Amino acid sequence: MSETMSTNEQKKPPLNGRRALPSNNSNEEENEVPEMEPFGLLPRGFNPKDYLRVVDIHMFKDPHETNKQQHHTDKYYNPKLIVRRGQPFQIQIDFNRPYKPETDQFWLEYLIGRYPQQNKGTYIPILVGDVLKPGEWGAKITHKENNSIRLSIMSSATCIIGKFRLYVAVWTPFGILRTHRDSATDTYILFNPWCQQDAVYLDDEKEREEYVLNDVGIVFHGDINDIKLRSWSYGQFEENILDACLFLMDKAELELSGRGNPIKICRVASAVINSRDDNGVIAGSWDNTYTYGVAPSAWTGSVDILLEYYSSKQPVRYGQCWVFAGVFNTFLRCLGIPARLITNYSSAHDNNANLQLDFFLDDEGKVDTKITKDSVWNYHCWNEAWMTRPDLPVGFGGWQVVDATPQETSDGMYRCGPSSVQAIKHGHVCFQFDAPFVYAEVNSDIVYSRREKNGAQVIEKIDTNHIGQLIVTKEVGGNGMMDITAEYKFQEGSEEERLALETAVMYGVKKQTTQDTAYQPQRDVDMDFQVQKVVLGNDFKVTITFRNKSDNYYTAATHLSGNIVFYTGVTKNEFKKHSFSAKLEPFSSSAFDVVVKSSEYLSDLLDQASFHFFVTARINETGKILAMQKATVLEIPTLRIKTQGGMVVGKEMSVTVEFTNPLKQTLENVTLRLEGPGLLRTMKKEFRQIPTNSTLIWEVKFIPKRPGLQKLIASLNCDALRHVYGELDVQIQKL
C-alpha cells in the first residue's frame, strides 16, 4: 500500500473552489490511516503496549465457513471475505489480554476509497452495542473466551457495494490506537436479494438460484421461425471477476456514495460495457470483418472478455448484442443484482422513434433499398435486472430493461435503461429511462408504401404483428425457453393493447396517422410464403401461396428477392431474384415453388448465416400490392463433446471435441475454444485446415475445481463458418 500511496500523494488532485474534497469515485485508491492518533502532546513514558492491543483478526472467510455459506458467496473464487448487505456476519478479534468492557473501549472502522466521509457512507465507525437492528450498521459480542471475542456485525441494507478496508480502533486516555493496514481483512460487500430491506430483494428461492447464483445461461438466437439456442458461460464467480466488475464502476467514475443504488449502477454499466464514447469493455462490429480481434460468434462466455479488459484497460474486440448482454449479465449477477438475458424476435430498430418502420417500394413493388433506412433485427438481446424503483410511482419496480448494445444515445451517451417492463406494457413511457425506445423495439408497425408518379404516397400494407412477436428468456431451473411476451405487451388487437398505445402516444411517442396518406388494404387476395428448412450447403425451396377469396380471375406479377443479411436486418447483397406471373382462380388457393441452389448463396454467407426474403405481388387487374418479408436461418453443424474416464474434483480428466466439415470446401484457419465455469479456464486451439468431410478431434485434459453439475461449452470459428457450438453437462463427484 505504501507504494500506491506515495504515487497518489505526488498526484494530489488540485482542489477547486466548488468542493472541499475531490470526488471519491475510485474503489481502488486508499488514504493513509494513522495507527496512533494522539489527543494532544503525548506524555513522556507513554507506551502503547500498556493498553488493550489487537493481536489478530479472524474473518472466517473460507468457502466452507459460516460467513460465505450463510451469505451465498461460497462459490466466489476469492480468498477474502465476501458478504451481502443487511445480513449479519461473524469475525473474531484476539487481544493481548482479556477484554474488560467496563474500562476498555474499542470500535470498528470500515473505509472505502481515497476520501472517506461518514455522511457519504464511505467512512463507517461501528460501536459495539447490545442489540443488532435489522438493516442498520451495528456490532455485538456473541462470545468471549480468554483473550478473544466473537463479534456479529450487521451492515446497512442500503450500504455501498464494493471492497471495504477494516481497522480496529482502541481508545486510550492519550489517543486512539489503530490496527495497521492489512489487506487480508478487506471485506467485499454485495447486494443481497435474500434481504427484505434490500432494493434488489427477490422473494423466490428458485429464482434467486437462477438469476443470481447460476453461472451459465442460454442465449436464444436465430429467427422467429427457427429458434436456435447456445449456452453462455457467465462465470461471475471465477477468479478476479469480482475485482474486474468493481473496476468497471471506477472506470465509469461513479461516485462511491452512489454505489449502493442499483438504478445508478445499471445505468452507468449499460454505458461502460460498450466502448462507444468512454473506451468501455467491448467494441461492437457488425460488418463481418473482425481483423485484429475475435469474431463475436467465437466467444463462449464473459470471463475472457472481462479479464482482458481488466488487465489491458482497452476495449476488447469484438461483440454483437448477445456478447454485450452476456457480459452485462455477468456484471449484474456478480454484484448480486438478479438478472436475466432476454431475446426479442423481430426487434425494431427505428431511426426516428415514430413507432413505424418504413419500407418503400418502387413501381414494380420491389423494396427500394436506397431510401429504406429502418431495419428489423432477426433478434436482439438485452438484459432485465430486478430492483425497486423508488424514483417512479408505485407499481413500476420489478424487472427493468437494461441494454448495453450501442444503438442510440441517451443523455449524450450510448446506453439504455433501466426502464420498467411494467411501464412499457402499459404505455407509461414518460418514466425514466429510455422507455420510448424500448416500447418501439417491441411495438412498432411495418408500413409498406409506394410513391405514385404524381408524388402522392400510397400505403400498400401495414403489418401490425411482425415486430416483437416473441420475447423469451431461459426458464428457471432448466434449459427450456420461457415466453415472456405477455410481460411486455397485451394481446395483439385487444382493448388493453389499444389503450397502452394511446397512453404511449399521449406521453410523446410519435405515431404517424395513416389519415394523411391513402390506404385501402387489399381484402380479396391473401398471400403467404414458407421457406423450407435450410441445411448449410444444400438446395432449398421457397413456396409462395395465394388465396383468392373473390369471384374474380386475377393475375399477380410476383417478385421474390432473397438477400444475405446481418442479423440486424441490414442487407449485404441480393443473391436471388425471381419474377413470375401467378394466375389466381376464383375462390381457390394456388402454390408456387422457387428453388434456391446452394451455389447461389454459399460464396456470400455472413457469420449469422441468415437469409431474408421479400415477396411482393401486384394484382394486375386492381393495381393493389401485397408485400411480406421473412427471415430464415441456416441449419449449422454442431460440435460433439465427450468425456473419458472418472470425473472427480482435484483429479485430472479428459474431454474430446469433435467436428466434421460438411461444406464442399476446405475450412482454413479454424479456432476452437472450450470453457466451463468451475471446470477449466478457456482453452484455445488453432487448426490450419479441415478438408471436406474430414473430422477433427481435439483432446483436452484438466482438473475440475468444483463438484456438482457443471457445463462445458465449445465453439468453432473460421471465416467460412461461424456460430458452430457444442455443449455437455458433466457431473463432477466430490473426492
Automatic annotation (TrEMBL):
One of its GO terms (molecular function) is metal ion binding. Keywords: Acetylation, Acyltransferase, Blood coagulation, Calcium, Cytoplasm, Hemostasis, Metal-binding, Secreted, Transferase, Zymogen. Its cofactor is Ca(2+). The active site is at residues 321, 380, 403. GO terms for cellular component: cytoplasm; extracellular region. It comes from the Eukaryota. The keyword Iron does not apply. Binds 1 Ca(2+) ion per subunit. Its EC number is 2.3.2.13. Residues 1-41 are annotated as: Disordered. It is found in: Cytoplasm; Secreted. PANTHER family: COAGULATION FACTOR XIII A CHAIN, PROTEIN-GLUTAMINE GAMMA-GLUTAMYLTRANSFERASE. Belongs to the transglutaminase superfamily. Transglutaminase family. Tetramer of two A chains (F13A1) and two B (F13B) chains. Factor XIII is activated by thrombin and calcium ion to a transglutaminase that catalyzes the formation of gamma-glutamyl-epsilon-lysine cross-links between fibrin chains, thus stabilizing the fibrin clot. Also cross-link alpha-2-plasmin inhibitor, or fibronectin, to the alpha chains of fibrin. This is Coagulation factor XIII A chain.
